[in-house]
Amino acid sequence: MNRHFLYIFFCVNIVIFVGFETVIALNHEMVKSTSESSEDSALLGFKKAVIQELQEMKGEMLLLKMENEEKDSKIKNLEQKVANLEKGQRHSVIRGRRGMFQNIAFTAYLDHSEHNLTQDQPIIYNKVLLNDGGGYNTNTGMFTAPVAGVYLFSYSVGAKVIPDVHLSQYDVFTRLIVDGVHQLSAVAESTSTWDDEQGSTTAIVYVPDGATVWTKHEFKGGNNLYSAEFERITSFAGTLLYEKEPVDNSGIIG
To answer: What is the pLDDT of residues 129-169, one digit of tens each?
Structure first.
C-alpha cells in the first residue's frame, strides 16, 4: 500500500511539475509577444509622430515660401515706384532747368578793325545786340554754356584792303572753338583796294554744361581783321536749340 501511494504521489508531482513548466513557458511566450507588440506599437507611434512633424514642417515651409514671394513682389513694386519717382524727379529738374535756361541767345559784333593778330588770339566782339541768359562775355569774347545741350553758332569775319592803313594784308583765317576743340573755320580774303569780303560759317553742336565757345585767329596769311560800326561785318551769334544729356565727344576731330 505504501508503495502504491508513493507511486501515485510521484506521478502527481511529475504532472504538477510538467504543468508548471508549461505554464511558465506559455507565460514567457505571452510576455515576449506582449513585449514585441509593445515595441511595434511604440515604433509605429514614433513613425506617425515623425511623419506628422514633417508634414507640419512642410506646411510651415510652404507658408514661408508664400510669404517670401509676397515680400519679393512688394519689394519689386517698391523698387519700381522708387525708379518712377527718380525718373519723375529728373524730368522735373530738367523741366525746371529748361524753364530757367530756355531763353539762351546772343549776338555780338566787332565795331572796329583788329591789326597784327597773333596765333590763337581770341576775337572779342565788343558790342552786344542780345545776350539772353548772360552767357556771352564782352571782355573775353567767349560764350559759356549755362546748360548742356545742342546749340547753333554762327560767326562771320571781314577783310578789306584800305590804302595807307594797317590792313595791307588782306586775308584772315579764323576758327570756331567749342570746349577747346576746333569745329569749323571761316576765311575772308580781299583781293583789291576797297574790296569788301566776308567769310562765315554756321555750326550746330553739342556743348557741355559750363563749356566755352569762342573764335580765334589762325596765323595763316593775313593778320588783320576788318570791321566797322557802320558795317558790322564781323559778328558772332549763338542760341540754345534744346537741352541734352552729356554725350561722348571722342569722335570730334581736333
So the answer is: 999 999 999 999 999 999 999 999 999 998 887 776 655 55
Strands 105-109 and 235-243, sheet pairing? antiparallel
Say whether both 110 and 77 belong to one domain.
Answer: no
The answer to whether 206 and 149 have CB atoms below 8 angstroms apart is: yes
- The residue segments making up the domain with residue 189 are 104-243
Going by the DSSP 8-state scheme, the letter that residue 121 receives in this structure is P
Please give the grid coordinates belonging to residue 232: 558790322
Q: What is the model's pTM?
A: 0.57
Per-residue buried b or exposed e for 23-59, using 16+ beta carbons within 10 Å of the residue's own CB: eeeeeeeeeeeeeeeeeeeeeeeeeeeeeeeeeeeee
CATH of the domain at 214: 2.60.120.40
Count of residues in the chain: 254
**How far is it, in rounded angstroms, from Cα 175 to Cα 155?**
10
The radius of gyration of the chain's CA atoms, rounded to the nearest angstrom, is 53
210 touches 247 (CB < 8 A): no
In a domain, 189, yes or no: yes
More confident residue, 49 or 79: 79
> How many domains does one find in the chain?
2
Residue after which a domain boundary falls, among 101, 135, 151? 101
